[in-house]
Amino acid sequence: MPPKAGVSYVDRVYETFLKAQPVAPWNCYPDLNSLGGGRWRPAEDFDGNYHVRRIAVPAPGSDGQLMTLVGHLYPGLLDRRLPLWECYIIDGLQDNRFAIFYKVHHAYGDGMSGARALFDTLNEKARAAAITPLWTYERLAKTPTMPTQDSPSATLRESFSGISRQLSSLSVLGRDVLKTGVQVLGLSSRDSSLPFSAPNNSLNQAFHSGARNFAYGSISLEEVKIIARQHGATVNDVVMTICDHAMVQYLKNKDEAPQRALTGMMAVSTRKKGDQSTSNAAATALTGLGEPGADIVTRLQQISRNTGELKESLGDKTPESLFLSSVLLTLAPRVAARVPLFGDKLAPTSNLFVSNIPGMSDKPRYLGSARMSGVYTAPIVQAGIPLNITLGSYNKQLCFGFGAASEVMPDATRYAALCFQAFEELASKALGESLDNEPRRSRRKRSRSAEAPDSNKARRGRKAVAETWPRQKNAAA
Hints:
This protein has 477 residues and is an alpha/beta fold. The protein has helices at 7-19, 48-51, 63-73, 111-120, 139-142, 152-184, 221-230, 235-253, 296-314, 319-337, 412-437, 440-451, 453-467, 472-476, and strands at 28-31, 39-42, 52-61, 85-93, 97-104, 212-220, 263-269, 282-288, 352-357, 366-367, 370-371, 387-394, 397-405.
């Protein structure tokens, strides 16, 4: 909150949100029974008291309490008869903070368009007074993700256009399936990780409970970029490395040390350059991770090589074919889990899922005059994806959100702490030598950021993850 502001500021935010009337499609719900696909249907009566809710954690509320609360809030299904979003204003947090938790259905857009919408509603300067709720964001009204009219001619045109695109995509998908089959038979070399060939472990068991648990934290984006630059890798390669290294350690702690490299599933944007629409334009792809016994620097080199090969293999695929193959990869485990005696025999598609949402801000943003300290995604968890790690960059830090199925992974905070320990290990081994080779300007910038409040808050976030799982300090020691 702004300096010297108290509960009255949260009162102001809540009252502003409660009175704000949504624009389309935030005031609509999707009707999926229409001919030719879905339609946005305006809700007859919008009830702000239902969609905007205020919750307080016992003061002084810790990060651990906030994680637990969000873990309870986000798994429940949204009411399909109403606009598919909810907003929770959470106060009582220590250090004069409050949180806003938006729960929004993917029908309104993908992570990139959602991030753009969020940041467009925030202020760039602290002295700006505007408090703008997400559901008043007007760009969505100009580019809805589904039609709003039932014109017969428009419906037919959309139907035939969609059928034409899908038929074209099916031919490409059929070619990819044939190519995969040849690779499975060993008749050609593998250019990427094959579906349903990941190592099995207890996390990949079928789960039926809707219970979820959540953790979050952040690391220095500048340090990640320096590590990537010095090793000819990308930011995503560094992220996949620390997530993989942490998963290997997590499984070792469970006496399930992997015997071969794990498989990662990555979110891939299919959005064309300059596309500012709010449609869903994302797919998934598989990549091999590091060898179980590799040190963390070698692991980064192995993953960088594997992701490079993956990018080459995706070069000739259309967005539609990538989307269809992604649907098969994510739906197959859900179908298999419902087939008796078969679901447990099917090898998992992947061992962890990582998504990096671009399009966020590298500078501070404000809600009114309240400075946003971090933005963390509570990611979707489903059959075949018991652990989802979604991150984005904000104000020179990478903000991680970890979502896990509690039935098979009840301790996302323990895994999150291992990720941040892996980053510290990678930074200590890579940055000492790397910083000697960095331009002096970069060294000075890093030195300042290490002493800045933002860096301290990021480190506090890593500590907060550890504090929510007291037993993990002994497990990690």
